[in-house]
């Protein structure tokens, strides 16, 4: 296909902000392209492979500037000057290519195949001379581009296409272009996308006009799948009512989702955002090889951190750095160990399990996993129709520092990418207190220079002292310019507290009890770590309370009462 056709389509799609209009334009375009050109669907979303593939174009502004300069013969200073004027390197490339065109008559015809071929070489380049080679590949394309092509090529390079086509637009347009019953088609196409995350392979089938052929799309080991998500239950009773009795109830672990693919000796780990994180978790790869007895599978699980010494589970925040860190893996693995809790299986020994009922899937898990606590286990689960047993299990989950429980219908299927009504989560309601900030800790990285976590205290009425009850770092904006509520950023809160700074030790600072804030939390626990004897679980900033003086803040008696109420009412049943 000629690249100009794609560029013209980009231009048309980008010229409207109306969703229906965009869908129509894309659907007309999809009718015109053949299966052989299916990979342009990646290009439309600014990619060269399916979204989950880690090979990305990865071109910096600097290289783009050099390439524009080389392909147009206009020096870099002028290119940068134009960039400052136009604010978009794509527009710069378009304008300068226009000038070049007037000077030279001859251009080669650019095809989408050629564009993909060159762009796909970019992420393969490594080591010495990479910049030069990248530049040559890009310049070759720009040199044969028309102004409109140069505009979109440059934007593609910089991963900023600006045409407003999303996965949902592609789904709607496929339904629109090839099927009579649009509603059913939309659903089936979405299912196929969730299963494969590969628009080009879905397009290839959709183009035949036969919806039932989509069923042929299989899960593939090594290709990430969108996970199934849960709706909410208000109480244990509500949980049973919504998913039916008896049902499975499992711990809702407070960690992060990990999809585990295995085929013979190869193990691949994905997050729910489809990122491949295999390298970050070498120990998990070993657990899978040692303790799961099956040839090939895809498991759905939650990875949870625990304290090496006490073996107590840790909240997600404490181990979240393990997901992104690419260095010192072994050290981190030692310091922040995790346990894998497997709760579903989507593929087993060559067959998709998506359409099997949950009771069968969960039975397979129990069969193939040899439980090794603090390494890998099948999720704690009961199958019951008894509210009392459910409540006991729920309390145990909270005692074990987990978030709550999940209710699961025993007969239903696994629906990738959907928030379903047959899997429900139940966790404690958030409550609130007004507390005083009495300390803080300086942040690192983008929060460098500001306090990024804050010590909260309540008041002891008898002595008038302020007693620590927890540490809070959520609910506050990264940047002052973000338009969200609550309306305070880390820097603004730090400045508010600065006049009351007392003494600095390392990264920690003591602060005079002056500023009162409203905080929500999920649970109060006994804790030896704070001098109030209590700790808040999941405290979150809600609002400044300038209307309250520190003396008006919640006192220890109120905290005790909330703790008792929570035990007595245990508003979960
Ligand atoms: P939340 O913030 O409540 O975790 P969420 O949007 O991350 O919500 P939900 O689908 O609403 O995700 O809740 C389910 C999440 O709980 C899953 O994504 C998974 O990470 C986690 N989880 C922990 N234990 C289980 C379990 N036994 N079964 C299913 N999901 C579990």
Provide keyphrases for this structure:
573 residues, OB fold (Dihydrolipoamide Acetyltransferase, E2P), seven-stranded antiparallel beta sheet, six-stranded mixed beta sheet, 21% strand, globular, binds adenosine-5'-triphosphate
Structure write-up:
Strand 15 (501-505) and strand 16 form a beta hairpin. The strands form 4 sheets. Strands 12, 13, 14, 15, 16, 17 and 20 form a 7-stranded antiparallel β-sheet that branches. Strands 3, 4, 5, 6, 7 and 8 form a 6-stranded mixed β-sheet that branches. Strands 1-11-10-2-9 form a 5-stranded mixed β-sheet, covered by helices on one side. It is built from 20 helices and 20 strands. The protein has 573 residues and is of the alpha+beta class. It has helices at residues 3-14, 19-32, 40-44, 61-72, 76-86, 89-103, 112-121, 130-143, 147-157, 167-178, 182-196, 199-206, 236-243, 282-291, 321-324, 329-335, 358-368, 387-399, 490-497, 556-569, and strands spanning 229-232, 247-252, 256-263, 266-270, 296-305, 338-348, 351-352, 376-378, 381-384, 404-408, 419-426, 431-442, 451-459, 466-472, 501-505, 508-511, 516-521, 523-526, 534-537, 540-544. Among the domains are: 230-426, D-amino Acid Aminotransferase, Chain A, domain 1 (2-Layer Sandwich), CATH 3.30.470; 431-565, OB fold (Dihydrolipoamide Acetyltransferase, E2P) (Beta Barrel), CATH 2.40.50. 37% of the residues lie in helices and 21% in strands. The site of adenosine-5'-triphosphate (ATP) has 12 residues, from strand 1 and strand 2.
């Amino acid at each position: 296909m000629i690249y100009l056709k794609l560029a013209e389509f980009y231009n048309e799609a980008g010229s409207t902000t109306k969703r229906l209009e965009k869908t129509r334009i894309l659907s007309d375009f999809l009718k015109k392209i053949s299966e052989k050109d299916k990979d342009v669907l990646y290009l439309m979303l600014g990619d060269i492979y399916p979204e989950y593939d880690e090979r990305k174009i990865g071109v910096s502004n600097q290289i783009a500037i050099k390439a524009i300069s080389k392909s147009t013969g206009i020096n870099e200073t002028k290119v940068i000057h134009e960039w400052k004027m136009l604010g978009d390197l794509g527009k710069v490339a378009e304008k300068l290519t226009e000038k070049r065109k007037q000077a030279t008559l001859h251009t080669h015809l650019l095809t989408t195949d050629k564009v993909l071929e060159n762009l796909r070489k970019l992420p393969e380049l490594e080591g010495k001379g990479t910049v030069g080679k990248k530049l040559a590949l890009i310049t070759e394309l720009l040199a044969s581009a028309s102004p409109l092509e140069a505009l979109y090529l440059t934007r593609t390079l910089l991963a900023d296409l600006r045409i407003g086509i999303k996965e949902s637009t592609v789904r709607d347009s496929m339904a629109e272009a090839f099927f009579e019953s649009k509603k059913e088609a939309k659903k089936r196409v979405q299912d196929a996308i969730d299963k494969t995350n590969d628009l080009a392979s879905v397009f290839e089938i959709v183009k035949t006009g036969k919806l039932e052929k989509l069923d042929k799309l299989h899960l593939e080991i090594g290709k990430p799948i969108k996970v199934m998500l849960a709706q909410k239950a208000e109480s244990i009773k509500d949980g049973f009512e919504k998913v039916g009795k008896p049902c499975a109830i499992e711990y809702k672990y407070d960690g992060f989702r990990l999809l585990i693919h295995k085929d013979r000796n190869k193990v691949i780990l994905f997050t729910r955002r489809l990122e491949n994180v295999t390298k970050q978790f070498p120990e998990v790869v070993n657990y899978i090889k040692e303790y799961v007895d099956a040839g090939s599978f895809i498991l759905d699980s939650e990875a949870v951190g625990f304290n090496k010494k006490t073996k107590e589970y840790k909240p997600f925040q404490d181990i979240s750095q393990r997901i992104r860190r690419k260095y010192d893996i072994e050290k981190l693995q030692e310091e922040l160990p995790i346990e894998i809790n497997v709760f579903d299986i989507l593929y087993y020994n060559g067959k998709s399990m998506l359409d099997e009922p949950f009771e069968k899937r969960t039975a397979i898990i129990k069969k193939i996993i040899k439980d090794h606590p603090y390494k890998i286990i099948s999720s704690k689960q009961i199958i019951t129709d008894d509210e009392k047993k459910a409540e006991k299990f729920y309390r145990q989950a909270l005692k074990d520092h987990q978030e709550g429980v999940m209710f699961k219908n025993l007969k239903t299927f696994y629906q990738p990418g959907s928030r379903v009504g047959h899997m429900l989560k139940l966790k404690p309601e958030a409550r609130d207190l007004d507390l005083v900030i009495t300390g803080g800790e300086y942040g690192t990285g983008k929060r460098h220079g500001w306090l990024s976590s804050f010590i909260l205290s309540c008041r002891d009425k008898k002595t008038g002292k302020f007693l620590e009850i927890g540490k809070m770092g959520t609910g506050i904006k990264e940047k002052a310019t973000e338009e969200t509520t609550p309306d305070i950023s880390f820097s603004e809160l730090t400045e508010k507290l600065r006049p009351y700074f007392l003494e600095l030790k390392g990264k920690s600072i003591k602060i005079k009890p002056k500023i009162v804030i409203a905080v929500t939390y999920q649970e109060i626990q006994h804790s030896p770590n704070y001098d109030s004897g209590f700790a808040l679980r999941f405290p979150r900033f809600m609002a400044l309370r300038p209307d309250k003086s520190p003396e008006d803040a919640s006192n220890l008696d109120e905290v005790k009462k909330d703790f008792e109420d929570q035990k007595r009412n245990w508003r979960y049943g």
